[in-house]
Design a protein that fits this description.
Blueprint: H1 2-10, H2 14-31, H3 34-38, H4 40-50, H5 56-67, H6 74-81, H7 85-94, H8 100-107, H9 112-119, H10 126-135, H11 138-146, H12 154-170, H13 186-196, H14 216-225, H15 230-241, H16 245-252, H17 258-266, H18 271-285, H19 289-301, H20 304-320
Length: 321
């Protein structure tokens, strides 16, 4: 092994540098708890010397391997986490030695891609989910919602719903480097383009919000349901319907999907999202696919007016109880 490491150390090719660092990481891992004290500072110096010089793809692979170390020196992990790029994202996403306190501090110092890396951590605590959705916009909120391991508080879910509403209009704006102008041709188009450089026509109709745009609640449910998070779906449906979350959880946990369909349609959940939810339930209850598809077909026929009328009756009964 020593001869192999010596040979790698004399070869300055990027691939050999990466191979050398991987070998050193494996040796450090094998040392276990013994490595943290005496070997930690030396290991950190080697990583600082070799890792930044690796090409991007190799840097990402080695940084991910580093993040998996249970004995990774804490100070080194913090230092690498704020370095940005492949290295920083790998640390923020996977370093187990970083605590929630560390991550909360780092969240205020990294860019949006760094926040997205934190949002992808497994698991993601409720404390971190709350902090991330408070810091970020629609993109970050959707990333938190899509993380199956994330614990989401009612306050976090409310922010996700709000971000879905705020983000939907912003998503329709053209990028800053695209100039919107009337569709003109010939000499008039050339005259317009001369002072502007390359000009891309942006039809006015595409800048308008579609009349059938999904509601914020429906958009949030779509993001969460795709990650098989039925408890959070129940919390969102309950908040929209004005019913207690525990009651809604019990209602949609029944084998009969009728009440779930009513709650979803009243919240403007589109058939495509309901199909995801119905198939999750079908798998849980062991229903044949044909039965689930029949439920989906019935949902497509259910109108929002019918669903809201049924929901009104449910709420009236609940108030009397």
């Amino acid at each position: 092994m020593l001869e192999h490491l010596t040979r790698l150390a004399h070869d300055r090719a990027p691939a050999r540098r990466a191979e050398l660092l991987v070998a050193i990481i494996d040796l450090y891992r094998a040392a276990g708890a013994r490595a943290e004290g005496s070997l930690g500072p030396l290991f950190g110096d080697i990583v600082r010397q070799l890792l930044p010089g690796l090409p991007g793809p190799q840097q990402a692979g080695v940084a991910t391997r580093l993040a998996e170390l249970a004995t990774l020196p804490h100070a080194l992990a913090l230092e690498l986490a704020v370095s940005g790029g492949f290295i920083g994202e790998a640390m923020l996403r996977g370093a187990s030695v970083l605590t929630d306190d560390d991550l909360l501090d780092l969240a205020g110092r990294v860019d949006e891609e760094g926040l997205m890396a934190i949002a992808a951590r497994v698991p993601l605590s409720e404390r971190m989910s709350d902090a991330l959705v408070a810091l970020g916009g629609a993109r970050l909120c959707r990333a938190v919602a899509a993380n199956r391991s994330a614990r989401l508080s009612p306050q976090c879910l409310a922010r996700i719903v709000a971000s879905c509403g705020a983000g939907s209009a912003a998503d329709l704006r053209p990028p800053a480097d695209i100039v919107a102008f009337p569709a003109v041709q010939g000499a008039e188009r050339r005259r317009f383009g001369e002072p502007m450089g390359a000009v891309i026509p942006w039809p006015k109709a595409t800048l308008q919000r579609p009349a059938t745009a999904a509601s914020p609640v429906a958009a949030a449910i779509a993001a969460i349901a795709s990650s098989d998070r039925m408890l959070e779906v129940a919390m969102l449906l309950a908040a929209h319907a004005g019913l207690p979350p525990d009651l809604v959880s019990r209602l949609i946990a029944r084998p009969d999907p009728s009440l779930l369909a009513v709650l979803c349609r009243a919240a403007s959940v589109p058939p495509s999202t309901f199909s995801v939810i119905a198939r999750i339930r079908g798998r849980r209850f062991g229903h044949p696919l044909s039965e689930t598809m029949a439920v989906e077909a019935a949902y497509a026929e259910l109108t929002e007016a019918e669903a809201r009328a049924t929901l009104g009756s449910m709420k009236a009964l609940q108030r009397k109880a």
